């Protein structure tokens, strides 16, 4: 709970509980669907078309584990901040601080990438209509600023807008699928002429795992809404699992269409693969639909990212892991407005770099560190509170198989990142190590110990 | 015996301001490192994995769609996307080098594993403070 002081009185103001499963789906899929419109295709560059498909399926397995684990823990730990709140209750304050930073960096970098795509698409379309040299940067600023304002004004409207534009972006992919006539191979889709063997062999497939994460990165963001849904035990698992199914379908059809239209070398480096796919059909209607789909997917993603990053930042402020100034809730709109505004310049600065692959790598690595935590956290959760010791909203099957699978897949993805972006991996590790030392030796003294455990659970086993 | 409840100090506004600046500076340092990515790679000696740019200029005279391994369908798609054989050659010839430097791999593994060991060890120490105060009072 956050406090706003007015005229000498301290009034406690909560976030509003107004969201249902549809909003949870919109939050999860809204953040991720842009990954089908751009970014996933860098996995084609690293491992070829088939390498990307194999990566898509393996990473789909990783995210299914994430969704299963997340649904159990989040439906039990219903507090804003999602995995951050889980880490606080299950592992400890330093881990929670790091998880909060993973979330903020993963979502803020994704938001920057989304804004970059909006700017790049506008510049591309301007070039195609005879207006070469359009500067994409004002569009980056405009996108982030408008969405930050929307988030500032209230969560219900933010996620309702996300539901509408995410649904349109998803159906744009379906329209393209119908438009390329998959029932008539060779007319528009030319898989037999365009698909090649693995260009780098199996090492390329492993390397492709890194950008394969982009197909799904952010689905775990559904649990950021835990404190604002009417029924966390029902809405979070329903919204997350239906979101994961939506993304698996979208990932497969996206890959199928793109590799049937473009040589893999081109597909692996373009910023706008699905828009390019529409251009290659020579169908103006499809080009317009995919322009709208790309813009909407990027906006929906950036919108959801602002929502999630600000909740994580807000939660850390509320617990004094960061200055408590960030823990303010707007007295009228009931949103964490200071957290929303503070992250705006960070997103714009990263968007201004224009380095889409670097920005995506930062986001992916932050997400990957978070997934590594989740697998270890799940095992700790079941060990400290065995089944039956507390009320769980949902119990995922086959434990510890999903947690162990997740850990193995994370290790493989670290290796994949090492192949090509090893220096980035070490740079981001340096950031988290410095931040951890700063927290333990400086910020931790401001933290109220007992307040870090708010769930009505018994003492954990072994403590 | 009940543990004494820890009373954290109240952080003044100026302290909150400096902490906000510190964390912002840390984030922007990571942005700076990403902008200096090539220098960082050279500094760390990370050679493997980078994408070697296609040397199209040197072999421009010899480049044909066939020599680039492109069949007529691929050629048609490149041309539809606005590429000539020369501009496509730069993209097609840019290949990843997946040779692995064992020392860099070991250093990376030690850093990642060491980081998580540090996190869990220190977190557990802090967690015992939390549980002690929550349940023993």
Protein architecture, described:
The complex is a heterodimer of chains A (about 475) and B (about 140). Chain A has a single domain, classed as Amino acid/polyamine transporter I. Chain A contains 16 helices and 2 strands. Chain A has helices at about 20-30, 35, 40-75, 85-90, 95-130, 135-155, 155-180, 190-195, 200-210, 230-260, 265, 275-280, 285-320, 335-355, 355-385, 400-440, and strands at about 1-5, 10-15. The longest helix of chain A has about 40 residues, at about 400-440. Chain B has about 140 residues and is mostly helical. In chain B, about 60% of the residues lie in helices and about 5% in strands. Chain B contains 5 helices and 2 strands. In chain B, strands 1-2 form a two-stranded antiparallel sheet. The N and C termini of chain B lie close together (about 10 Å). Chains A and B meet through helix 5, helix 9, helix 12, helix 14 and helix 15 of A and helix 1, helix 2, helix 3, helix 4 and strand 2 of B.
Keywords:
heterodimer; A: mainly alpha; Amino acid/polyamine transporter I; two-stranded antiparallel ribbon; disordered N terminus; B: 137 residues; 3 domains; two-stranded antiparallel sheet; 5 helices; 3% strand; elongated
Helix content of chain B: 55-70%
**Please, how many domains of chain A?**
1
Number of strands of chain A: 2
Shape of chain A: globular
Rg of chain B is 27 Å
Question: Oligomeric status of the shown chains?
Answer: heterodimer
Q: For the residues shown, what is the average pLDDT of chain B?
A: 84
The total strand number of chain B stands at 2
CATH top level class name of chain A: Mainly Alpha
Number of spatially distinct domains of chain B: 3
Tally the helices of chain A: what do you get? Answer: 16
Considering the protein shown, what is the CATH homologous superfamily of chain A? Amino acid/polyamine transporter I
What's the number of helices of chain B? 5
CATH topology descriptor of chain A? Amino acid/polyamine transporter I
For the biggest sheet of chain A, the summary is: 2 strands, antiparallel
User: Would you tell me the overall average pLDDT of chain A?
Assistant: 88
